[in-house]
Amino acid sequence: MPSTKLCISSSMTGSGKTVFTSALIKSLMNNGYSVSAGKIGPDYIDPTYTRYITNRAVFNYDTWAMTEEKIRYLIHESTQKNDIHIIEGVMGLFDGTKNQSSSTAEFVKKFKIPVLLILDSSGQSQTLAAICKGIMNYDTEINFIGVILNNISSERHYNLINEELEKSKIKVLGYLPKSDDLIFPRRHLGLFLAEHVENYQYLINCAANLIEKYIDIEEIIKLSNVLDGDQESTIRESGKASIDLGQRISIAKDPSFSFIYDNTLRQWAKEGREVDFFSPLHDEGPSVNCTGIYLPGGYPELHCEKLANCNNFVNSMKSAAKQRKFIYGECGGYMVLGKSIIDKDNKEHAMLGLLNLVTSFNKRKLSLGYREVKAKESNCFVRENAYMCHEYHYSSIIEESGQHLFESLDKNGAQRKYGLINENVFGSYLHIIDNRLMKTGD
User: Which of the 8 DSSP states describes residue 430?
Assistant: First the structure.
């Protein structure tokens, strides 16, 4: 049956995918379309922009970490009762791990999603046509519906590029002029979260107005309408939540703890688990009747002085630990479970002290990449599964001792250990995307 899906991709990071995707969705909604959004890869930040606009869950699709069956089900769920499902790509179209695994190209071919290419036209004209032609000829299995030219400085600039693209029969579906209203603020982990951009509503409205003025929206919709080979009756969901925190889960959520996958929240809801949220920065503690506490990643390194003085939060977390409630910290949450965090000015701030860990944002070191790990020892909340994770942080470990939570599954290199576990308290720098049953021999 026909299904309208579209992937927004580009030649490289920083080409304007997130701004364009968000503005296109806003424009479509302004014109009466029902839109859902998705994101390829492990990114937490970009989905906050499309979630803010659609007010709906935005699922991450990761071909490295997730099974094809699970991704297919999530896409199917996202397209139900919506006119169009728009998916933002990751990095450049062909960028990923070895053999383009985890790339946008791998995803769109596997799930037969049309691609709209957005190219940054800054500092070039006719050469951009050569780049575009090279991308489109590099893999002819990809269904390109056309191209959007971003950062056009003048009508002459646009015409120079468009004339060259027309010679190659490449369809230009519009352009976006250079504008301060198309610049979203950034920091060390990428864009600011949408809810932390003070004038985001203004920026996205301006961007949507530019879309409606310079982009052929109806042609994009028409070209995105493709035959969907997946029959509803054949699509099945499988798998359980990666971490078991019991029936009632209290989740920290504020600028210090913001990196939460909608995939995870959805899975817990499907399993009938109850979820509530609390703000450590507002000195709130977890609900008293919770069975487990989740401290997700975020930016505690930017708020560690305030966190250290949130006495109710600190005391309630220590009390929950004594009550043997499951407490799980991921990346920034893991840092807060430790004894202290050293900030960018080399000042040390006491944290929860539930794990023997000291981290520093003063000594910065980029840790980035996929990690496949397994639990060092099975317990009631971490199963004997392989865990497909992503690591991305600039803080570094100064001190870490005790029983480690995970170990590397990489048989070609040195064994690595990740995280700590202290009775009912556990965590690591790794963001868990998904889990799978161990293969024979793992």
Answer: P
pLDDT digits (tens, 9 = 90+) for 7-25: 999 999 989 999 999 999 9
- State pLDDT tens for residues 365-415: 899 999 999 887 766 566 667 889 999 999 999 999 999 999 986 555 568
Pairwise CA distance, residues 41 & 62, whole Å: 5
Orientation of helix 155-167 relative to helix 126-138, angle to 10°: 40
Whether the Cβ atoms of residue 24 and residue 86 lie closer than 8 Å to each other: yes
Q: What is the pTM of this model?
A: 0.93
Name the active-site residue from 7, 304, 310, 331. 331
Which pair of tokens denotes residue 416?
């690595």
Q: Which amino acid is at 404?
A: H
Distance CA 240, CA 235 (A): 17
Tell the residue number behind the tokens 């603020």, with chain if given: 185
Residue 387: which H helix or E strand, with range? strand 385-393
d(CA 120, CA 152): 8
Q: How far apart are CA 405 and CA 413, in angstroms?
A: 19
Active site residue 331: yes
Residue 81: pLDDT over 90: no
CB neighbourhood size of 109 (10 A):
16
β-pairing, 425-428 with 420-422? antiparallel
Strand 2-10 and strand 115-120: the pairing is parallel
Q: Three-state DSSP class for 117?
A: strand
Q: How far is CA 243 from the centre of its chain?
A: 18
Reading the block at residue 307, the tokens are 């966190």
Give the H/E segment covering residue 37. Answer: strand 35-40
Report how far residue 396's alpha carbon sits from residue 405's, in angstroms, rounded to the nearest whole number.
Answer: 18
Q: Which helix (H) or strand (E) holds 307?
A: helix 304-308
For the chain, domains (ranges, CATH) are 2-234 (3.40.50.300), 248-437 (3.40.50.880)
Distance CA 81, CA 346 (A): 52
Instruction: Provide the token pair at 56.
Output: 């709906």
**Packing angle between helix 68-79 and helix 104-111, nearest 10 degrees?**
70
